[in-house]
Every structure is written in C-alpha cells, then in structure tokens.
Amino acid sequence: MTNVDLQRERQCATITSEDFAEWWAGGRAALHARRALAKLFIEDTDLTDPQHTSLMSHKELYEYTIAKACKFLSKLRAWHAANAQSKANAEQSAIATLYDFRMLLAGPLGTALFQQNLPLRLHFSMFLPALLGQSTEAQQREWFDRAWRMDGIIGTYAQTELGHGTFIRGLETRADYDVQSEEFILNTPTLTAYKWWPGGLGQSANMVIVMAQLYIKGKHYGLHSFLLRIRNADTHLPEPGVDVGEIGPKLGVNGVNNGFLGLKDVRIPRSQMLMKHAQVRPNGRFVKGPEPLLTYGTMVFVRVMIVRDVSFCLLQAATIATRYSAVRRQSPIATDQTEPQILDHTTQQAKLFPQIANGIFFRIAADVVWVMYQNVVKELDAGERRSLPELHALSCCLKAYCSTVSEEGVEVLRKSCGGHGYLSSSNFQQIYGTVTAACTYEGENTVLLLQTARFLVKQYVEGLKRKVLPKSVRYLRNATRPKWCNTIELEMLTELLEFTATESIRTLYEYQRQQRKLLKSAVLVANKAGIRLTQVATLHARAFLARTALEELEKFCKHLKPVLADVLTQLAELFVLELCLSSLGHILMSYPLDTRQVDQLQSRYEQLLAHFRVNAVAVVDGFDFDDRVLGSTLGCYDGRVYERLMAEARKSPLNQESVNSTFHTHLKPLMQGKL
C-alpha cells in the first residue's frame, strides 16, 4: 500500500513520470531495455543481501562483496556476450563499449547491487582504458582481450603515491632500464614512493599498470606506464619484491579494496612498458612517439565519467529527500492549519529543487563532453591535436566543480530529512561517501581548477590577438554587457555569466601583469594569484554549464510534449538562476545590478520553486530508480517511511535479545556498587 500523500503527488502532477523517464533514458526502447536488464539482476536472489552491509565488519564486507561481484560479473559478461552480436554494438568503438560497460557498473544497476561499491570496478574504469589508450596494437593483442575477459587477469591502475597525488611530476617510483637483460627494474625507493589508493589493489588485483619515472643509463626520460604482475596467477601470493596490502576502512566506498604497493628490484621485460606514445629500443635508445591524449589520458577519460557519477549520486539523494518530504508532515505554515507536507515549505523547496536541476544538467554536460572526448580521440588518430587543450581544461573544471557542488548538495539533502537522514538506513552515508571521494581522486579539485585557469588566461591573450578560440571559450572574444530585461530570460542569464567570467579573467590577467613586475617570477605570481585563479575557473565552469543547458534544452524541447518541455524549461531556468545567485558577488563586481534587479532574480527563483512544486515527485520518479538503487528507508516508491524505519531498527543485532550480557557483567555491578 502506497502512502496517501505520495499517491496524491503523483495524481496531481501535470506530467507523467513515464514520459520523463523515456526522455531521461534516451527513448522508450532504451528505457525498456534498461528495465529488462535491471530486472534480470535485481530479482536474482543470489544477488540479494541477507543483511544490511553496514552491519558487517570490514573483513566480512570485503569477502562478501568479492563473492557477490564474481557472481554478478559472470552473469553480466554472459548477458553482454549475448547482446554484443547486434549490429549497433558491433559498430561501437572499443572505448565506447568500455564506457557503456563501465556505466552499467557505476550507474543504477551496479549501485542497486553494491551500495558500498563494486570491488573490481577499477579493472574496468582505469586498467582497461589505460591498456587501450597507452599500449601498441601488438600489446593490445597480447593483453587487452585477456584482460577484457578477465582471463587470468584482474587489474588496477597505480599512479598516486603515499607522498604525491595530483602533482604527477613529483612521483618517486622508478623504472631503470637494464640494457644487458633488456628489462626494466622497478623500485619505490622511499616510504612516500609507495603506491597508495588504487582500488582492488589490496587483495583482489594480480596485475597493475604502474606509473613510474623512466631512467636510462642514469638519464631521466619522464613518467611512463608499465604493466606489472604483482600476484602469482595460480597462488595469488605476492611476487618476489612486491609488498602489497590494503589501506583500511574509509569514509565511504568500503566495498572497494584500496591498497598500497611497494616494489624492490622487480624486473619486467622491455615489452611490458606500454609503448603507444614512447618506446625504449633494446639498445636503450628512447624514442618519443606521437602526441598522446595528454600525459594522463586515462585520467581524462575517468574525469568525464566522474561528472556523470556525481550527478547520479546527487539525483539518488534528491529522490530520497523529495519522496520523504512528500510523506513527512510537520510545522504548520498557518497556526489554524494542520501540519503540512514539509514539501510545501518554501525553505524545503529551496533545499531540494535546485539539486534536482543540478543533477539533470550536470549529466547533460557530461554527455556533451563525452561526445567531445570521442571526437578528440579520432582527431588525434588523424594527427590533429587542436582540441586537446580545450578538452583537458573542460574535463578538469567540470570534474572539480560538479563534484564539489554535488558533495555539498548531498549534505544539504541529508539535512533536509532531519534526524532520520542521519541513520545509516537512509543511505545518505553511502551516497555521501561516494560523492565526496570524487573531490580528491583523479585530481584534487583545487589543482584542477588552477590548471583550467592557466588555459583560460592563455585563451584570453589569444582573444586579444583576435585569434579563433575553441567553442567553450569563444565568449571571451564575444562577451558584451548584456541588456537587462524586465522579464528574466535564460539567454540573458547565460550572457550575464559569460560576461562575468570574461571580466574576472581580464581582471586576473591585469593583476598578474602587475604582480610580475614586482615578483619577477611567473611561478611566484601564480601562487599569489591562486585564489583568483580558482575563482575564474569556477566562473568559467558555471558559464559553460549555463550555455550547455540552454543549447541542449532547445534541442530537447523540439521533440517533447509541451507540458514536459515546460517543466524542463523551469528546471533549466532554476539551474541557471542558481548559478547566477552563486556568482552574485562576482557579477556585482562587473555588472552593477541595483537592489531592484537583485530582488528580481530572487523573486523569479522563488516563483520557479512554486511552479515546479506540483511536478517534483513525478520528476524524481522519472529517474526510474528501483528501491534497491536508492537503498533507503526514506526514499522507497511506496513512501512507507515509518514502517520501514521501524522494521530496519528491529533488525539490529542489539535487538535480537531482550537483555544484553553487559547488563549482568557491567551495568548491574555498577548500579549496585557503593560509591
């Protein structure tokens, strides 16, 4: 039986959740195919948890998730093999197929089965992409197919060290080439050189791609990737010279077996240096290859996926909080009225609805950048690298901005559920643990924003020279002070963000020029301007997200029912207004809005919250999350929040006996003692 308030929300909506779900999934056929796949796995009793994973010890959780992951991957591989025969799949590039497969593991299906995260995820999200992107065709023939089938190979990717992360030039792991034996000798010469964090490294992986500094006859040739077996294929014992283990419990994603790796005089054949972008000949001659898809191409691939990952986390949390807010009744708005649904409180709407909009348009932006990534890969194969810096900058700033906003959004949504959001059974803990991890892995966010800012300043200078700029920064040449309209329009708001970003970059450029005269060092100037640099990168991210939302909305609305197009337009305007209000301080520095205009923005924002209210539940229903995906007592489709909270509480091991033994051993003696 469904909660009556939640049922009423669905009946009163102006759109149907099914129409929204079809659009969100990419069409009716895609939606039905995804549902059929989800049903195949979610209804499999072998893949159902016998107890909540939060009740397991760290060791029990690892052992349980590994056993479950093996069942899941065996079944998924069989399904994929059966479906890969279609013409559409056959025509996909390997990288696109890998992206789709990885989305299955990190999206709703993988989350429904592994709330603490899939323990072998790094094999698919980093090890295989690195093999594909960094090895020669001959190396791919030898290793990639076997790794794809997991034929004796479970891999991970080891770049981050105990003492160095985002600053990859500072990595200490060495690979010295021995000309006599035609082997590389790998070492982690210090404690801080130990590889630290790779998922699956602790106990699961038996092979790893290691990023190490290459030395030939004592001369340094930069950072390169090496394929290394760390555990015996039959016994799984560490290979000689390999010190490997697990780093222990974390804030979240404890299903991922993150590990450490130390190497002492570990020898590998010359052929196990991944040589697509550089080679070491048998005689020790170093040969630099064609321009790679960035030195850290695998990380660019992953950063694009991270934007999609964090949008998914945000929408999970938004669905839970919105459904709960429709069920929870509290605090009369007028003293002569009964307690309303907390969804009726404007302050509650301001916590929920912007996060729904953020999740939607973050994912849309991720899809746009993913298409760009595929095009850049094709261009590089043709010897064209013009779009490479733009892709790098976008992947950096969107990963940084979207993960930060999503982390903050999940916490806002947790708090919006009051005390119940603090319970493990609400699942906010796991969602937050997943999304906050994205703020530091694959590039710490501040560092990524600084990298983007350097690109922006360079493009601003190119614009001053009247050169053609990449599409995402073309506004730097075209931005003009927008004309204020009495009616708030998306185009005006987008132009306002682009103008603000341009002015902040111009101001930064002038500031750095002045500081350069005083400090005489570009490095010192960049450090002093660090805060300003991160601010301009953030403003650029907002401008890009606003323009993308506007352009993609226009494409979508041509093919949608008018009522659904209206709701998406409300969400897009809410999204861009939120970007403007978040940037208000910077806007006021470049565009002197008066009190009336600021109030106009705020009033329109509040109007949109009220307009969207009637469709809030229908929209979150349209994300089509199974209850297993949400994993929450607060967010189930039937809205039976209080029954589920009590049922989950009764499952606690402490409730399986009326009197705990500590009463007799400790509490009773304490109470009977004479102080």
Architecture overview:
This protein is of the alpha+beta class and 675 residues long. It has a domain at 150-288: Beta Barrel (Butyryl-CoA Dehydrogenase, subunit A, domain 2), CATH 2.40.110. Helices cover 57% and strands 8% of the residues. The chain has helices at 4-12, 17-25, 28-42, 58-83, 87-90, 94-106, 108-113, 121-134, 137-149, 297-327, 346-381, 388-416, 428-437, 445-464, 475-478, 490-519, 522-528, 530-557, 562-582, 584-590, 595-612, 616-622, 627-630, 641-650, 662-672, and strands at residues 155-158, 174-178, 183-187, 195-196, 207-216, 219-229, 242-246, 259-263, 266-269, 278-280, 286-288. Strands 1, 2, 3, 5, 6 and 9 form a six-stranded mixed β-sheet that branches. Strands 4-8-7 form a three-stranded antiparallel β-sheet, with no helix packed on it. A two-stranded antiparallel sheet has the order 10-11. The termini are far apart.
